[in-house]
Amino acid sequence: MRIGMGYDVHRLTGNRPLILGGVTVPWPKGLLGHSDADVLTHAVIDALLGAAALGDIGDHFPDTDDRFKNASSLLLLGKVAGLLARLDYKLNNLDCTIVAQEPKMSPYREAIRENYSKVLEVPPGKISVKATTTEGLGFAGRREGIAAYAVCLLSEN
Ligand code: MG
Question: Potential cystine with 115: which of 20, 22, 36, 139 (Cβ 3.0-4.6 Å)?
Fold first, then answer.
């Protein structure tokens, strides 16, 4: 078994869609970034790469590379899943947390689980998506950005 953790933060800004776990959340602000800035999926990618000791998201998908401009992070996640499969790693489970003062994430959690379940080719029961506010404290509490954490367990054959 190999454990991995991932963490990411993106800044909230106007005129961008808010995409979390591949789901477009209706909200007046979105996240700033080179790709679609899906902060949750970035944390998940880093957890998976970390478990396999394969570096981080910036090594695999550099933000200086135009191929990844506005790229779907779910697509990048699929590439990482393919890489892990080729190396004979299997995903045991994934647990992740969105840290945002608003909007409420509960209406989108199941859709995010389904997205990850499809891309990572594991049943939804192996995927957990949670959300928390910070009670108004810090950058997330001031609605300046959204953070995400992810932990995963891989088994190697
Ligand atoms: Mg990121």
Answer: 22
